[in-house]
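Whiteboard transcription, Tuesday session. T.W. wrote the structure tokens on the left side:
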């Protein structure tokens, strides 16, 4: 019984080491990894390469899958490229086998693991303030535990082999070991750990190379259980990625099982890899690479198919928050930023509807953001939609883990929250005078008609600059354009007030009140853009400018 616990202790240390490595890498390079996936997935081939490289580095296909789910849900990358990343992650995770085979069975593990564990543990104990160094220490500690656990698994397997008659296992066929790989991997939820177990058994000749290969194929399929469970209550995009993951693994694993003797013959006899451990790892690489080659030509068709199977059915107004998992800070922050852009376009559209700007003018202003306005909405419905967006963005922001954010990110989040409030204020100001505004912009008398044209001309200019500002990234240019918008709003109000006094000979209180609310709405929109587009330092500088105030 001691030998079994010896082996299980090694397995536990191995799994805990992997979790420490994943956690440390997430903190050390999470944002960099996210940047890599966002900017190096322009086509399926590039996506496969990025998924392979990142998974090999991170040693966690689940972490890469998390990024993919967030990006697909946030519409940052198209579905075919996302599927390419998933296939690449499948290949990248096979890199673990090479680490285990080389370090775990070709070197004296305990000789190397104890100093590594000591360095990592001492770093975690004495480094309390510097987060980056703590993450480095956690990585070192996790890698040491991984090696130490692997040593325990290896020695535990050797002891078990001495106690058990291994000849009884030789009678079982490859289907038995295939199912065993599925079940055990589904339980421990780590194909890397299952590879380590299989290599341990193969190293002491508990099982044959063919049986080990069948076990690894089963582990490849068993690892999809984690993805399935994670997608059960998720958004459609999450289910789409999980569906493909299962489909991809199921097809290539069944094909690999059928062609197992042929692939092993190719590796051992043709290529000449006689070391059983390296043969197994190369087999794992080979059947995943073959799967990628088989699926690559059909990715666009498959993407269309899975999107038709799991269609979007949600009352949520948000486009980018639905699958932006909060475990990687930069992903939900990007999602919030994109959602505010979406909300800004909706508010400008609503304001133009209230002001009764001609359809041709509205279309011209929002032409580059028409994808946000694919669904036609009457004014009242759009206002409720904007309020729902405010609620969803605010709730999402509140639930973010502040401990995972940098000081700069926390400042940005505070500004974006204020931006959302100002966007609602902009819409509410116009909504409050919609009926008086409708009377002022009637077209059944000459005076109102002239007033309407004057209002359209001036608000059209302001909204045009505001919508163009959304695409501007240079802080200096944003600064200048915001200053310009402030001046336009001030001058527009002054000139319209003068215009009203000239044109209206009696009751001017109603049109003046309307113009005041139009000014207030525009001011709130400009404030929202300031808080959204400027960083904290530039916003402080902007607020200290000698602007006209009311």
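and on the right, the sequence the group agreed on:
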């Amino acid at each position: 019984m001691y030998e079994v616990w010896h082996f299980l202790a090694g397995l536990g240390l191995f799994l805990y080491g992997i979790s420490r490595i994943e956690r440390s890498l997430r903190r050390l390079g999470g944002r960099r990894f996210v940047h890599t996936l966002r900017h190096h997935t322009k086509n399926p081939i590039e996506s496969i390469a990025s998924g392979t490289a990142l998974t090999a580095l991170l040693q966690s296909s689940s972490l890469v899958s998390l990024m993919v789910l967030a990006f697909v849900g946030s519409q940052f990358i198209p579905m075919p490229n996302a599927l390419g990343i998933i296939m690449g992650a499948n290949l990248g995770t096979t890199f673990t086998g090479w680490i285990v085979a080389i370090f775990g069975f070709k070197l004296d593990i305990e000789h190397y693991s104890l100093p590594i564990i000591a360095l990592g543990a001492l770093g975690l104990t004495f480094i309390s303030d510097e987060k980056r160094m703590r993450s480095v220490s956690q990585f070192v500690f996790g890698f040491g535990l991984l090696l130490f656990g692997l040593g325990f698994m290896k020695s535990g397997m050797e002891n078990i082999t001495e106690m058990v008659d291994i000849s009884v296992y030789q009678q079982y066929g490859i289907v038995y070991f295939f199912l065993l790989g599925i079940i055990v991997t589904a339980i421990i939820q780590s194909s890397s750990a299952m590879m380590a177990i299989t290599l341990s058994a193969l190293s002491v000749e508990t099982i044959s190379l063919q049986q080990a290969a069948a076990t690894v194929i089963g582990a490849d399929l068993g690892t999809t259980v984690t993805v399935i469970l994670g997608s059960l209550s998720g958004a459609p995009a999450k289910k789409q990625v999980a569906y493909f993951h299962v489909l991809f693994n199921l097809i290539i694993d069944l094909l690999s099982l059928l062609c197992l003797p042929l692939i092993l013959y190719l590796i051992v006899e043709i290529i000449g890899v006689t070391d059983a451990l390296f043969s197994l790892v190369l087999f794992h690489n080979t059947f995943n690479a073959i799967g990628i080659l088989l699926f690559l030509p059909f990715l666009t068709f498959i993407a269309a198919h899975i999107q038709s199977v799991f269609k979007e059915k949600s009352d949520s107004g948000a486009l980018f928050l639905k699958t932006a998992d909060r475990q990687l800070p930069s992903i939900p922050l990007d999602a919030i930023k994109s959602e505010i852009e979406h909300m800004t376009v909706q508010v400008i559209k609503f304001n133009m509807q209230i002001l009764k700007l001609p359809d041709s003018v509205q279309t011209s202003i929002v032409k580059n953001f028409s994808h946000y306005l694919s669904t036609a909405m009457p004014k009242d419905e759009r206002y409720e939609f904007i309020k729902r967006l405010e609620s969803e963005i605010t709730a999402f922001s509140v639930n973010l883990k502040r401990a995972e954010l940098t000081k700069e990110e926390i400042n940005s989040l505070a500004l974006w929250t204020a931006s959302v409030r100002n966007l609602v204020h902009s819409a509410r100001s116009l909504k409050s005078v919609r009926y008086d505004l409708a009377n002022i912009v009637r077209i059944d008398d000459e005076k109102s008609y002239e007033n309407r044209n004057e209002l359209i001309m001036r608000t059209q200019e302001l909204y045009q600059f505001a919508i163009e500002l959304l695409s501007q990234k240079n802080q200096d240019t944003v600064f200048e354009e915001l200053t310009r918008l402030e001046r336009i709003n001030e001058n527009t109000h002054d000139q319209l007030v003068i215009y009203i006094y000239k044109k209206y000979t009696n009751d001017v209180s109603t049109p003046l009140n309307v113009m005041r609310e139009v000014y207030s709405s525009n001011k709130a929109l400009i404030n929202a853009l300031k808080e959204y587009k400027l960083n904290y330092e530039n916003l402080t500088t902007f607020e200290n400018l000698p602007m006209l105030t009311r």
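Someone added at the bottom: The chain has two domains: 2-309, 330-543.
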